[in-house]
Amino acid sequence: MTFTLRPYQQEAVDATLAWFRRHTEPAAIVLPTGAGKSLVIAELARLARGRVLVLAHVKELVAQNHAKYCALGLEADIFAAGLQRKESHGKVVFGSVQSVARNLDQFRSEFSLLIVDECHRISDDDDSQYQQIIGHLRQGQSADPAARPDGHAVPPWQGLDLSVPLSWDGARR
């Protein structure tokens, strides 16, 4: 099964890609309930050059986002105890924030894009699970262009602005 993005969904994808071409700061996509955020997430994950981690706070959203991505004919891992799957080596990994935060050692390799579904749930508290994951991913990024598979240096991280995609050079097209 394939999907065609609605015009407003394609505009969200295009605007996000345009943002990442010009900026190193995170981007936020705001769409109302029922607007098809899972399809936008799937398209952004499909277009990303490097590895992608998609986080959600409940197993239902993890499963929904994974299903939409796989409906594009693509394969992805799931890392969510509630779904009884802990796979973390694929190009795209859909995970529950709780499971990923408890198993950060399984997320040592670099990711070029972090997408947070329901990003308003990200706390400013450094001890929150989201911030633990973000900090861990930041530490895993190399600033040495020779160490990066795409040959690009990682720009400095900026403050998190309740983002959907959290990007560095490897996420840009």
UniProtKB/TrEMBL annotation:
Span of domain Helicase ATP-binding: 18-135
Annotated Gene Ontology cellular component terms: cytosol
Ranges that cross the membrane: none
MF-aspect GO terms: ATP binding; DNA binding; helicase activity; hydrolase activity
Keyword Hydrolase found: yes
SMART domains, per database record: DEXDc
Coiled coil start-end: none
SUPFAM superfamilies per the UniProt record, alphabetical: P-loop containing nucleoside triphosphate hydrolases (SSF52540)
Keyword set, alphabetical order: ATP-binding, Helicase, Hydrolase, Nucleotide-binding
A Pfam family of this chain: ResIII
InterPro entries: Helicase/UvrB_N (IPR006935), Helicase_ATP-bd (IPR014001), Helicase_Restrict-Modif_Enz (IPR050742), P-loop_NTPase (IPR027417)
Keyword Transmembrane: no
PANTHER family: ATP-DEPENDENT HELICASE IRC3-RELATED, TYPE I RESTRICTION ENZYME ECOKI R PROTEIN
This protein's name: DNA or RNA helicase of superfamily II
Lineage of the organism: Bacteria, Pseudomonadati, Pseudomonadota, Gammaproteobacteria, Enterobacterales
